[in-house]
Structures are given as structure tokens and as C-alpha cells.
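Aim 2 progress. For Ribosome biogenesis GTPase A, the working sequence is reproduced below.
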Amino acid sequence: MTIQWFPGHMAKARRQVTEKLKLIDVVIELLDARLPVSSRNPMINEIIEKKPKLVLLNKADLADSDITAEWISYFQEHEDTKALAVDAQSGQGIKQIPGQCRALMQHMLQKRADKGMLPRSIRALIVGIPNVGKSSLINRLANKNMAKTGDRPGVTKAQQWIKVGSELELLDTPGILWPKFEDQQVGLKLAASGAIKDEILDFIEVALYTANYLKEYYPDRLQERYGLDELPEDKVEIIERIGEKRGCLMRGGIIDYEKACELLLREVRAGKLGQISFERPEV
Ligand code: GDP
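Predicted C-alpha cells for this construct:
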């Protein structure tokens, strides 16, 4: 799915999220654990105003776990927000979500109890940019408890809720937000991680960015994966060496540069070079 964000789209997406906010207690903000800043809508806190928020660092299976741990502390310290590392594909970390939402709503639940009212389910909305894993997470949380209240006769179909255990209800359609594309670095990181499709950015440029990033932060992985005794300083040369080692050749034995770029990107995105994070918290 290729999404081009134009100002009109952005305004519409924001409006849709704002509408949904009226129905819920807690926002679950889904970010990519490999690039929590670039996979975020920078206006999120402004959009959700004062709603309590839980941050989920998804695709934690693909991210560098030490850096994910640093991000969790970062969110706690700098934004006073609880963050959890999850993997919506395997379900890792998912079980903690209802309890964390409840903790965020403790004040409201206590107030109801003080008034002698019965406890009610906490209502949550998942928000995030395209491809961050919103549908996967909803499916995971829904498990077999898919209870669409709208299916009952006489109930309007406007909003459907999914029951998660006994105390959480989730809106079945997530809020879609947009990343901050104006920043070239953001686009390159999103593309390097596979979060956006190759048609959007020149894949050669993305591969060069990736080679350079790996040279700086994960040189051993590059050397090991492609059997390079030494890493060239120049990113173009790194790609050439990868092409050479992997037999990406054109007629006459000339290195097929484009093929080597594709190979590097495919392997990084598939986790073949191990768990990689593209962003670290600034300390
Ligand atoms: P959405 O556009 O936000 O709804 O994203 P999807 O749920 O469709 O997920 C986008 C892609 O990411 C799919 O190929 C998923 O299988 C994959 N995905 C989602 N969550 C995870 C995860 O935690 N780990 C990994 N490795 N892949 C994931």
C-alpha cells in the first residue's frame, strides 16, 4: 500500500482521529521500535490533547533490544509516558496492554468506585502511521473475543468495539496518522526499515544511506554477513563489495550496482543482519 500524504489527506486523517477520540478513554500510540521518532506523527500530543496515552514500540523483534530498552526509559523520563516493547506478529508483550491501560485510568476508576458506581470497561483507540502494525495488533488483541456490538440488531453500525478480556474495549478501526515526510532523514529511515514502499524514494539512495548507517553503527554485522575483511570508507564502495561478494554481476563481469542495493535492503528489512535500530535516544 502506497500512501501519499497531501495536506488534504492529513487534515482528513486528523479529523477522523479527533472524532474517534470523543469515544475513548486511552490512546495506544503504536511506533516502530527501530525508529520511534521517525515513525511518529510529531503532532500526536497536540492531536490527542489530554487523553492518557500508552506508547507501544512494535516490531521489537526486529529492533536492537538494548536500544529498545533505552527508548523505554526515554519515554518514561522525557514524556512521563509508559512505553512497552511488543511484537504484534508473535504476540510478545501483548498481554501487558490491558493492565497498563487500567493503570492509566486508575483515577477515573477510583472516582467511579467512590461514587458507588460499577466499574466499566476502559475504551481504547490504537493510532499509528501506515504499516506500523495496527491491524496486526488489533487482530492479536481481539484473539477470539471478537465482539462486535454493532452486529446486534437495532444497534447502529457506526462504531464497533472489540472486547479484550473483561476490562478493555478497543475501537475496531485504528486512527491513521502520518509521519513527517518533509524531513529527508525521516523518509530515508522509514524506507530503510521497509516502513514505506520503494516507489516513494529512490531505492539506491536508501541503500546508500543504509550502508553508511550500518558502517557507522553495525560494522561487524556488515563485515560478517558479506564476508568483507575490511569495510571501505565510501558507501558506494561498500555496495560494490557486497555486489562482488554476492555475485550481483552484469555481462562482462561488471558489478550490478542496482541489484546489490536491492539485496542489501531486502536483507536488512528481513532481519538477516540481526536486530537493527535506526534511531537512538539523544542523551
Ligand atoms: P498497519 O498498516 O499499521 O495496519 O500494519 P499491519 O498490521 O498491516 O502490518 C504491516 C506489516 O508489518 C505486515 O507485514 C505485518 O505482518 C508486519 N508486522 C506487524 N507487526 C509486526 C511485528 O511486531 N514484527 C514484525 N516482524 N512484523 C510485524
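The longest strand covers residues 26-32. This observation will guide construct design in the next reporting period.
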